[in-house]
């Protein structure tokens, strides 16, 4: 019996591939990046650590159009645009054929997400009703989907599938809410001309979708060189361009499943019937042609949206988000540090830890009480509260909004400490509650 050939490199690559495929791996790498940032910020390397991300990198076109920003800025506006592009792909997939496609099924996580955004913002504003610190009200509204789901997946099969689906849908809606908050409330002065150019490129991408263009290079060129650059120059945060561009990516299949099976089966039958005529470890021209047809048919069967999401997810989880955390999570904790010179820490910390739980659980129970929706199978009040605590994990999105809300280093540090404290407490508490209620539905 023929066996797949194994190579020495497989011994190195296989464990890495298995690690990447695990749902919780992304959250582990993110946690390591946060710890590294904190250690570097409080070590003898501190000055070099902060200086490294302030280095300026520029791109110039005929000395007419120049992009010159700090490395920190390129990470937050450029690299994070890739993160938001994948967020946009996930949003569209859920709306087109996922948990948000059925209005009745989607209602409960949408209501829960709304509560999880409104209540935290109100708690923050209660502590910070005016002044410069007022701008941080959007920080506790966000949930880090990677971290929250990572904690949930640590519990394995003990947690009902309905809980994972509910938290995923909730976090996706939460991400959409965060994107809208950034677009409407954390945008600087707008250049109408640049924004118009950006929307023109979006219209071209949308037209390409309707015309049946499925080549991802077409969308990459117009999305990056067109939409992203135009939005970067417009004053509207460039990450919004990434989400809008994601919504223009085709989500339909050009080869139906039954036809795909029929075609591939035919190609494989022909491949099997070919006599290579030699024992050399190479394929004949006809075999290569048939395999090319199988590959082409497979690509056409996969919607470009899901193909891109599948291809980009590892890069986002293991490169983009960890680099962002490394660049933004560093906080120097000194003995004379004015932790409570403002109410940012209690506003952010209690906004996440108390606001998320109260908002998610409270709005969900209210919707059920009013018979707008009902509990999914396997969910009860206790594990709902556990999910509420997991939703208090803010990290990536909360840190990102912090960089938009504040320029003052003291405010930035206070907000980050509030995020860290609430996220750690929320994650640990949520894990403990869900581990105790695992398997119980009453």
Structure overview:
- The structure is a single chain.
- This protein is mainly α.
- It has helices at residues 10-21, 25-41, 46-52, 71-97, 103-127, 145-154, 161-185, 192-211, 216-234, 238-246, 257-273, 285-301, 304-328, 344-369, 381-390, 395-405, 409-437, and strands at 56-61, 65-70.
- It has 2 domains: 24-187 and 237-252 and 303-437, Na+/H+ antiporter like domain (Na+/H+ antiporter like fold), CATH 1.20.1530; 257-300.
- The chain has a two-stranded antiparallel ribbon with strand order 1-2.
- The mean pLDDT is 83.
Share of residues in strands: under 5%
Approximately how much helix is present in the residues?
Answer: 55-70%
What name is given to the CATH topology of the largest domain?
Na+/H+ antiporter like fold
At the first level of CATH, the class of the largest domain is Mainly Alpha
- Look at the structure and give the mean pLDDT: 83
Count of helices? 17
Order of helices and strands: HHHEEHHHHHHHHHHHHHH
Number of strands: 2
Q: What is the spatial order of strands in the main beta sheet? A: 1-2
| Whole-number total of structural domains | 2
Poorly predicted residue ranges: none
Structural class: mainly alpha
CATH superfamily of the largest domain: Na+/H+ antiporter like domain
Our measurement of the CA-to-CA distance between the termini, rounded to an integer number of angstroms, reads 52 Å
Describe the main β-sheet briefly: 2 strands, antiparallel
Overall geometry comes to globular
What's the alpha carbon Rg, rounded to whole Å? Answer: 24 Å
**In the CATH hierarchy, what is the architecture of the largest domain at level 2?**
Up-down Bundle
């Amino acid at each position: 019996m023929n066996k797949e050939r194994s190579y020495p490199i497989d011994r190195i690559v296989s464990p890495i591939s298995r690690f990447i495929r695990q749902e919780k791996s992304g959250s582990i790498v993110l946690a390591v990046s946060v710890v590294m940032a904190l250690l570097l910020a409080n070590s003898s390397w501190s000055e070099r650590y902060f200086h490294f991300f302030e280095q300026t990198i520029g791109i110039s076109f005929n000395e007419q159009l120049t992009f010159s920003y700090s490395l920190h800025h390129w990470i937050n506006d450029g690299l994070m645009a890739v993160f938001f592009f994948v967020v946009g792909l996930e949003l569209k997939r859920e709306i087109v054929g996922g948990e948000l496609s059925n209005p009745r099924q989607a209602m409960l996580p949408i209501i829960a997400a709304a509560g999880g955004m409104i209540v935290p913002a109100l708690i923050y504003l209660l502590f910070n009703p005016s002044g410069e610190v007022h701008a941080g009200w959007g920080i506790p509204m966000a949930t880090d989907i990677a971290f929250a789901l990572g904690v949930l997946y640590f519990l394995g099969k003990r947690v009902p599938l309905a809980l994972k689906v509910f938290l995923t849908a909730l976090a996706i809606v939460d991400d959409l809410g965060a994107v809208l908050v950034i677009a409407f409330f954390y945008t600087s002065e707008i250049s109408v001309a640049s924004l118009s150019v950006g929307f023109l490129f979006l219209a071209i991408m949308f037209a390409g979708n309707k015309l049946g263009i499925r080549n991802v290079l077409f969308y990459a060129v117009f999305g990056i060189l067109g939409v992203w650059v135009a939005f970067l120059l417009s004053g509207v945060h460039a990450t919004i361009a990434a989400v809008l561009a994601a919504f223009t990516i085709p989500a339909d299949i050009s080869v139906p499943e039954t036809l795909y099976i029929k075609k591939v089966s035919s190609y494989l039958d022909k491949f099997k019937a070919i006599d290579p005529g030699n024992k050399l470890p190479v394929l004949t021209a006809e075999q290569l042609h048939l395999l090319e047809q199988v590959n082409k048919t497979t690509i056409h069967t996969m919607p470009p949206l899901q193909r891109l999401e599948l291809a980009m997810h590892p890069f986002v989880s293991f490169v983009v988000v960890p680099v962002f955390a490394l660049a933004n999570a560093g906080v120097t904790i000194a003995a004379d540090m004015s932790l409570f010179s403002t109410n940012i820490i209690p506003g952010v910390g209690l906004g996440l830890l108390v606001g998320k739980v109260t908002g998610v659980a409270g709005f969900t129970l209210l919707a059920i009480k009013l018979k707008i929706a009902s509990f999914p199978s396997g969910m009860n009040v206790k594990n709902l509260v556990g999910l509420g605590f997991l939703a208090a994990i803010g990290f990536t999105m909360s840190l990102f909004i912090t960089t938009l809300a504040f320029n003052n280093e003291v405010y930035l540090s206070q907000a980050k400490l509030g995020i860290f404290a609430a996220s750690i407490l929320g994650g640990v508490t949520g894990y403990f509650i869900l581990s105790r209620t695992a398997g119980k539905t009453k």
